[in-house]
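ugh ok so i messed up the first submission bc i forgot one of the chains. this is the corrected input, ALL of the components this time, i swear. 516 residues overall. if the numbers dont match what u have on ur side tell me asap before i send this to the collaborators (the ones from the other lab, u know who)
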Amino acid sequence: MVYGVLRFINFAHGDVFMLGAFSGVYLNKWLGPALAGLPWGVSLLIILVLSMAICAALGIVIEFLAYRPLRSRPRLNVLITAIGVSLLIEYSGQLIFGATQQPFPQLIPAENLTFTGGLAVTKTQVIVLVTVVALLIGLRFVVMKSRLGLAMRALSLNPTASALMGVNNSVVISFTFGLGSALAAAGGILYASLYPSVEPFMGILPGLKAFIAAVLGGIGNIPGAALGALIIGITETLVGGYSQAVGLPSGYKEGVAFVILILMLLFKPSGLLGKIEREKV
Amino acid sequence: MLELSDVTVAYGSIAALHGISLRVPEGKIVTLIGANGAGKSTTLRTISGLVKTRGGSIRYDGADITNRAPHAIVGRGLCHVPEGRMVFANLTVQENLRMGAYLQRDKAWISSQTEYVFNMFPRLREREKQAAGTLSGGEQQMLAIGRALLGRPKFLMLDEPSLGIAPLLVKAIFEKIVEINRDQGLTILLVEQNANLALDVSSYGYVLETGKVLLEGPSAELKANPEVQAAYLGA
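and heres the new structure output, hopefully the right one now
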């Protein structure tokens, strides 16, 4: 989404994801006594929303300090800055949170649900899936139906024209960053609920994979990104499962997403659901 | 209504406008004509705040708007239909029109104005749900004008509305421009390479050359001027 509006990869996106997970850890620690009496669903929601708010604010600050001053510069400068911001957050994280892995609190009670046919899933998996779907629907609604969402799409197509319609482009860009960062935070918390350990470099790989999912689905296309992520996830799991059968270590599955990226860029750079941008002149 | 005094603009170290002064009285159609690169588009882009000035001042509707942000200028009812139309290609016709009304809060006004635009350009109504990028050049121009009309303009700037459009449609679009000026009492500043057409619909004209005002006068006089005829009217 941020790519769609600003035309550069926000490398720091995965790090905001990490900060989201850490906000979850600390919020749970600090608010623990206050949340103790509440049902787990409510405390989960409170922690989720607060982390999203914290990271939205952080995202807006990052954009304001690091990217805004470079807006009229060549895109490469911004790209390099994004890598710098990413490293800055990672190593500051190491300084502040420590380099060792920390356990992520159990926000969702452990419970196995078994369905007919022998399908067994944990409650965490169900809650994560439901939350993700709800967030995606919410995002799609904001982008497609709201006034700001329309402005976001217009800005991504032609910033000059959107300014001539009376859009304050800076405000819309801040909003986009805030929204993207809030979603990254939610991603961090949900991810850490499934794989309950957090460390300052945890965002790198999910950040890259998220970008690949977006490319696979077609940049700037929300259902496309969700589809891309689903395809990468399933392929990874299948490769992980079958690679052992043919004698390969399952670690190869981490490479799957990148192979998909290379193939996609070679054969269909616009993505599965992406539109080729063209304009009649 | 609009007054430029000695406006200077440069892109980097290259000067684009060397002190332009012009006036557009309320309710009139005024035109800027001139060759490619004379600074016509730059003049419009400077008025709407897309390009910053190096010197001089721009007054509009009694206020100084020099170097204000584009969105603030649009908010004062000064709307700009840019060169190359710049419709939002992946948005539908309807969404493009909604973008035009971005700063408008009055729902009733928006729907009656949308109706006015649709009646003026029935083609747009037929293609309401279509992506703007799939429209023909002429239809995109209609959309760009319609979109600007939804910004509740008091003052409209049109940049090369005839560019890349079939001659028959050009005539139709110019008739609409005169109609808008008459019906909605809109002041219009028109930039046009087709000087014949521009001088026919306007009451006053400025001839620009390399970033300077070369000549100015009532359109009929300019049209009769042998110098203008030789250089711009192909006579």
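quick check: Strands of chain B lie at 2-11, 14-24, 29-34, 55-60, 63-64, 78-81, 155-159, 187-191, 204-209, 212-218. that seems consistent at least. The first helix of chain B runs from residue 40 to 47.
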